[in-house]
Amino acid sequence: MTGLRPLDQSRVIRMLEQNGFKQARSGKHITFKKTDADGNVLTTWVPHHKTVTVFVIKYIIKQTGKQKQEFY
Q: Is the keyword Hydrolase in the record (predicted)?
Protein backbone atom coordinates (compact mmCIF):
# COMPACT_ATOMS: atom_id res chain seq x y z
CA MET A 1 0.00 0.00 0.00
CA THR A 2 1.04 3.55 -0.56
CA GLY A 3 -0.44 5.31 2.45
CA LEU A 4 -2.27 5.12 5.72
CA ARG A 5 -6.00 4.51 5.89
CA PRO A 6 -8.58 4.60 8.69
CA LEU A 7 -8.57 1.47 10.88
CA ASP A 8 -11.08 -0.16 13.22
CA GLN A 9 -10.64 0.92 16.83
CA SER A 10 -10.31 -2.70 17.96
CA ARG A 11 -7.42 -3.27 15.54
CA VAL A 12 -5.52 -0.19 16.76
CA ILE A 13 -6.03 -1.23 20.39
CA ARG A 14 -4.87 -4.77 19.62
CA MET A 15 -1.72 -3.41 17.88
CA LEU A 16 -0.89 -1.23 20.89
CA GLU A 17 -1.43 -4.07 23.37
CA GLN A 18 0.71 -6.43 21.28
CA ASN A 19 3.50 -3.85 21.51
CA GLY A 20 3.39 -3.71 25.31
CA PHE A 21 1.01 -0.79 25.88
CA LYS A 22 -1.42 -1.12 28.78
CA GLN A 23 -4.71 0.71 29.17
CA ALA A 24 -4.20 3.40 31.80
CA ARG A 25 -7.64 4.99 31.86
CA SER A 26 -10.80 5.49 29.88
CA GLY A 27 -12.63 8.79 29.61
CA LYS A 28 -13.32 10.68 26.42
CA HIS A 29 -10.44 8.65 25.00
CA ILE A 30 -8.77 5.40 25.98
CA THR A 31 -5.28 6.22 27.25
CA PHE A 32 -2.43 3.73 26.84
CA LYS A 33 0.99 3.82 28.49
CA LYS A 34 4.22 1.86 28.18
CA THR A 35 7.61 2.21 29.84
CA ASP A 36 10.47 1.67 27.36
CA ALA A 37 13.88 0.16 28.09
CA ASP A 38 15.32 3.59 29.00
CA GLY A 39 12.60 4.20 31.60
CA ASN A 40 10.71 6.72 29.45
CA VAL A 41 6.93 6.52 29.64
CA LEU A 42 5.25 6.54 26.23
CA THR A 43 1.64 7.71 26.28
CA THR A 44 -0.97 7.73 23.54
CA TRP A 45 -4.74 7.63 23.23
CA VAL A 46 -7.45 6.09 21.07
CA PRO A 47 -10.84 7.80 20.69
CA HIS A 48 -14.11 6.03 21.47
CA HIS A 49 -15.08 5.72 17.81
CA LYS A 50 -15.61 2.63 15.68
CA THR A 51 -13.04 3.89 13.16
CA VAL A 52 -9.76 5.65 13.97
CA THR A 53 -8.93 8.40 11.45
CA VAL A 54 -5.62 8.78 9.62
CA PHE A 55 -4.93 11.98 11.59
CA VAL A 56 -5.16 10.06 14.89
CA ILE A 57 -3.10 7.15 13.52
CA LYS A 58 -0.32 9.62 12.61
CA TYR A 59 -0.47 10.99 16.17
CA ILE A 60 -0.22 7.47 17.61
CA ILE A 61 2.80 6.73 15.39
CA LYS A 62 4.51 9.92 16.60
CA GLN A 63 3.75 9.30 20.29
CA THR A 64 4.70 5.61 20.30
CA GLY A 65 7.73 5.65 18.03
CA LYS A 66 6.24 2.81 15.98
CA GLN A 67 6.93 2.45 12.28
CA LYS A 68 4.35 3.78 9.83
CA GLN A 69 4.35 0.41 8.03
CA GLU A 70 2.88 -1.30 11.10
CA PHE A 71 -0.38 0.59 10.51
CA TYR A 72 -1.04 -0.48 6.91
A: yes
Domain spans of the chain, in order of start = 7-71
- In what side-by-side order are the strands of the sheet with 29-35? 22-26, 29-35, 41-47
Question: How many Å apart are CA 13 and CA 11, to the nearest integer?
Answer: 5
36-62 pLDDT per residue, tens = 889 999 999 999 999 999 999 999 998
Residue 1: pLDDT over 60: no
Burial class (CB in 10 A: 0-12, 13-18, 19+), 47: middle
- What's the CATH superfamily of 7-71? Hypothetical protein. (3.30.920.30)
